[in-house]
Amino acid sequence: MTAIALSIAGSDSGGGAGIQADLKTFSAHGVYGASVLTAITAQNTQGVRAVEAVSPAMVVQQIEAVLEDLDVGAIKIGMVANAEIASAIAETLRRFGRKAVLDPVMVATSGDRLLEPEAVDAIRRELLPLATIVTPNLPEGAILSGSAIARNEEEMAEQGKRVLEAGAEAVLIKGGHGEGTEAVDLLLDSAGTHRFAAPRIETTNDHGTGCTLSAAIAAGLAKGDSLEKAIAAAKTYLSEALAASKRLAIGHGRGPVHHFHRQW
Questions:
Q1: pTM of the entire predicted model
Q2: Which domain covers residue 38, as residue numbers?
Q3: Model confidence band, residue 111 (pLDDT cutoffs 50, 70, 90)
């Protein structure tokens, strides 16, 4: 049986993040990738030049077309662009009885904002209750929990608890934006807290890291892995992709991770 994963996200014309990163990640894990575009961005390794949202009706049509035909094992939600699209995605997934890996994409690696402010409330209200797991980085965790950016693991855990209270089944607070020799992610769910750590890799080729990690988790779930196993494998894959990124020479800014480091 072919494992299939669906990405609902924005397009990155530079190929390092968004739908492009998700499909590369699915493929690298031996998973067939389907896609639903929520927005088109004009961007490269140096920044985002323009963002144009797809109509909510078209987003719904895409989701319906995929779920009515393909046996999708896991769904990943990335950039939703605005509140209307977030609500349309939520209504459609509820109709199909589906939940998703939610990567609350709010700001690009370059610092450019990718989400309209009113969409944050829609994510909290509509999408968090549909999240099998939500994967915020430290700035996103602060926004979702309504607090300052976490400075240590205790504060990360406290923010994770607040996100769980908003309705998500599990939350993975990612410490990649933190400091220290280790990059620590904390998984919080009904079973408690689990710590995932990896050596911090210093590189400027880190565009699309959040998209890549959440897509790798979705790929693992599509293949039938447990959530904890999928997260552990995804973190290992991302660490390897970051370490191998120096083998790529893409653009003049923050380049992408090496999605196909195991194949190329």
A1: 0.95
A2: 4-247
A3: low
Q: How many domains does the chain have?
A: 1
Question: Is 216 domain-assigned?
Answer: yes
Chain segment 150-192, per-residue pLDDT in tens: 999 999 999 999 999 989 999 999 987 666 678 899 999 998 9
144-161 pLDDT tens trace: 888 899 999 999 999 999
Residue 256 lies in a domain: no
Q: Which two tokens stand for residue 169?
A: 């089944």
